[in-house]
Q: What sequence folds into this?
C-alpha cells in the first residue's frame, strides 16, 4: 500500500518520464526528438517545432491545412476547447499564439519568416468558431535567427518546488525584454519641438513582477486561493479530471492532457486507489492531500510575474500567447523555471472575486486584461510533456 506521502507526490502531476516503455503504443515524447529532421518542406519543419508550444491543459488545439507551395491555413481545434475554465476561449487563443511564435522562430532559423494574417475572415466573439485563426505564408527574409529558437527543445512548464533563491530584477528585466522584443518601438522617430516622438505605437503588452514583499505575499495567497477555488468548483475541477492521463498506457494513448506518471501511479492505479472516480472526489483523503500538496508551491514561489495586454481582442490574445512563448523560452535560456497559475485569470462566475483581486494586485488598468500569471524560480529540470505528433494536426 503506498503511503499517503507517496500518493501525495503522485497527485502533483509529474510530467511524463521519457524513459518509460509503452509496448506497442506511440512514444508520447517522440515529437521532442530532432523535430522536423529530414523534412524538405520548410512548413513541416516549422510545424514540427510549433507543436512543442506551451498551451492550456496540453490540449494542443491546433489544426493545419497546407495550401500551395509555401502557405497554410491555421485553425483552433474546436474539439479541444476548455469551456468550463476558459469560457471565452481566451487561453486557447493564447496557446494558438504560442504555436505561431514557435513556427516563426523556426522559419527565421532557416532564413525565412512567417507572414501571418490573423483572423482573415474576422474575429470570432464571444466564442471561437470555424473561421481560421490565421493565414500563414513563408517568405524569404534577411533577419538573423532569434536565439530563442535554440531553447525550444529545453523549454518546459515546471510544476516542481523551486529552490529558495531570489530571482534578480536584472534577470527578470532581461526575460521580459526578450518576451516583448518584437512589439517594442523599433526606433525613436522625429522630434516635435525638440521632444522625441515614438515612431511606432507602444507595445500592446507589458510584463511586470512582484516588487515588494507585501505584493509577493498577496500573490502567493491569491495563487493558492485560485487553485483551491477551482478544485472546489465541480464543473471546473471535473474538466481537469477528465483530462488527467493516469499511468503510462493512458498517457501514450492520448499524448495530451495532464499527466500522472511514475511507478507509484501504476501501483496505486492497479490496486484501485487511484482512478478518475477517486480523483473527482475532493473529499477522498488522498485526493484532498494531493490538492493540498500544491499549496507550498504557490506559497513558496520566489516571485510571480504577469503579462497584461492593453486590449483583449483575438489579435491581442494571439500577441499575448506569442509573447508568453518567448517569455518561457527566455526564462529557459537563463536557467529559470516557469509555471503558470491561471486559475484566478479565468472568467467563470465562481472565480469572479479572485479575478478582481488579481486585477487589483497586478495593477491592471480599467480596460487592460491580465493574460498570464506565472511563478518563476530555479528548480530541477523536468521531462517534456507529451505531444500527439504533427500528423494529428494536419488536415487533408
Ligand atoms: C494560456 C496558458 C495557461 C496555462 N495555465 C496553466 C496553469 O494554470 N497551470 C499549469 O500547471 N500549467 C498551465 N499552463 C501550462 C500548460 O499546462 C503546459 O504548457 C502544457 O501542459 C504543455 O506542457 P509544456 O509547457 O511543458 O510543453 C498554461 C499554458 C498556457 C499557454
A:
Amino acid at each position: 500500500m503506498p503511503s499517503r506521502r507517496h500518493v501525495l507526490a503522485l497527485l502533483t502531476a509529474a510530467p511524463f518520464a521519457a524513459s518509460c516503455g509503452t509496448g506497442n503504443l506511440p512514444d508520447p515524447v517522440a515529437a521532442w526528438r530532432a523535430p522536423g529532421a529530414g523534412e524538405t518542406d520548410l512548413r513541416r519543419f516549422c510545424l514540427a517545432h510549433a507543436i512543442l508550444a506551451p498551451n492550456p491543459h496540453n490540449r494542443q488545439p491546433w489544426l493545419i491545412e497546407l495550401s500551395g507551395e509555401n502557405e497554410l491555413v491555421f485553425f483552433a481545434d474546436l474539439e479541444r476547447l476548455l469551456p468550463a475554465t476558459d469560457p471565452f476561449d481566451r487561453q486557447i487563443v493564447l496557446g494558438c499564439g504560442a504555436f505561431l511564435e514557435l513556427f516563426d522562430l523556426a522559419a527565421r532559423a532557416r532564413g525565412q519568416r512567417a507572414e501571418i494574417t490573423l483572423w482573415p475572415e474576422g474575429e470570432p466573439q464571444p466564442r471561437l468558431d470555424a473561421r481560421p485563426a490565421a493565414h500563414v505564408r513563408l517568405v524569404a527574409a534577411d533577419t538573423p535567427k532569434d536565439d530563442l529558437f535554440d531553447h525550444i527543445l529545453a523549454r518546459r512548464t515546471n510544476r516542481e518546488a523551486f529552490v529558495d533563491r531570489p530571482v534578480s530584477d536584472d534577470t527578470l528585466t532581461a526575460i521580459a525584454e526578450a518576451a516583448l522584443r518584437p512589439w517594442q518601438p523599433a526606433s525613436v522617430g522625429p522630434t516635435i519641438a525638440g521632444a522625441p516622438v515614438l515612431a511606432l505605437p507602444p507595445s500592446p503588452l507589458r510584463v511586470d513582477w512582484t516588487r515588494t514583499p507585501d505584493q509577493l505575499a498577496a500573490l502567493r495567497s491569491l495563487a493558492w486561493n485560485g487553485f483551491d477555488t477551482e478544485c472546489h468548483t465541480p464543473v471546473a475541477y471535473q474538466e481537469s479530471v477528465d483530462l488527467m492521463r493516469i499511468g503510462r498506457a493512458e498517457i501514450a494513448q492520448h499524448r495530451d492532457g495532464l499527466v500522472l506518471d511514475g511507478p507509484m501511479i501504476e501501483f496505486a492505479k492497479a490496486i484501485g486507489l487511484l482512478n478518475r472516480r477517486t480523483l473527482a472526489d475532493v473529499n477522498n483523503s488522498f485526493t484532498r492531500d494531493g490538492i493540498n500538496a500544491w499549496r507550498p508551491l504557490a506559497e513558496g514561489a520566489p516571485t510571480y510575474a504577469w503579462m497584461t495586454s492593453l486590449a483583449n481582442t483575438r489579435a491581442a490574445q494571439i500577441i499575448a500567447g506569442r509573447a508568453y512563448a518567448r517569455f518561457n523560452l527566455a526564462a529557459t535560456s537563463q536557467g529559470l523555471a516557469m509555471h503558470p497559475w491561471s486559475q484566478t485569470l479565468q472568467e467563470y462566475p465562481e472565480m469572479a472575486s479572485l479575478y478582481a483581486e488579481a486585477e487589483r494586485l497586478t495593477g491592471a488598468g480599467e480596460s487592460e486584461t491580465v493574460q498570464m500569471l506565472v511563478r518563476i524560480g530555479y528548480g530541477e529540470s523536468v521531462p517534456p510533456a507529451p505531444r500527439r505528433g504533427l500528423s494529428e494536426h494536419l488536415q487533408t
In short: The chain has a mean pLDDT of 91. The radius of gyration is 21 Å. The first strand starts at residue 62 and ends at 67. The longest helix spans residues 90-109.
